[in-house]
Amino acid sequence: MAITASTASLASVTLEVADPEAARRFSSAFGVDTYIRLRASEAHSTGFRGFTLALTVSQPATVDSFVVAALDAGATVLKPATKSLWGYGGVVQAPDGTIWKIATAAKKDTGPATREIDEIVLLLGVEDVKASKQFYVGRGLTVARSFGGKYTEFTSDESGSIKLALYKRRSLAKDLGVPADGTGSHRLVLGNTVDTFTDPDGFAWSVR
């Protein structure tokens, strides 16, 4: 039976954490508790875990408000929020080790800061973007946009859900300001409504 795009999209994101209650306090204070699931796990990893969760917001002041909220909740700064060619953004690491990027395409504020999130994208760092793209297309996901072997983003079927995207692992690590090396578990489980499988880079999927 063919797998359709509507049943094979990313349905949930679960972070495996050593202390679920502490992680829950962080995600609530940071404002992402409605998007992320948490699960107790003794899984270990060292270095870069191979992914980031990226928040897209409306303006620089809102980026700053999320960075401050993250720091108040125990996060550390990996890259301070600054202007760039593409807009304005910064990178923080939560107490459980998850890396979050907060960014906007806008370079100027148009009003007071808010706590509204326009979009969340789960960026998986992969060794071969083209190969991983074909793997996911073969499982029924639909490509929304793709830039050769550098970046691929898939469509999202549910309003308010997290989008899935692929980026070269070393390029993603460089963008986040961390070394690309890492070993052990990704400490991440992706949910769908179709099947249980593992992708070419070891990211685990389960039935939601």
Order of helices and strands: HEHEEEHEEEEHEEEHEEEE
The chain-level mean pLDDT equals 93
Give the DSSP E fraction (strand runs of 2 or more residues): 35-45%
Q: Please describe the biggest sheet, giving its number of strands, its sense, and whether it closes into a barrel.
A: 8 strands, mixed
Number of domains: 1
Uncertain regions spanning at least 5 consecutive residues: 1-7
Stated plainly, the CATH topology is called: 2,3-Dihydroxybiphenyl 1,2-Dioxygenase, domain 1
Quick one: how many beta strands? 15
What is the helix fraction of residues, given as a range?
Answer: 10-25%
Q: Strand arrangement, largest sheet?
A: 5-6-7-4-8-11-10-9
Number of helices: 5
Briefly say what this structure is.
The protein is α/β, with parallel strands linked by helices and 208 residues long. 22% of the residues lie in helices and 38% in strands. It has 5 helices and 15 strands.
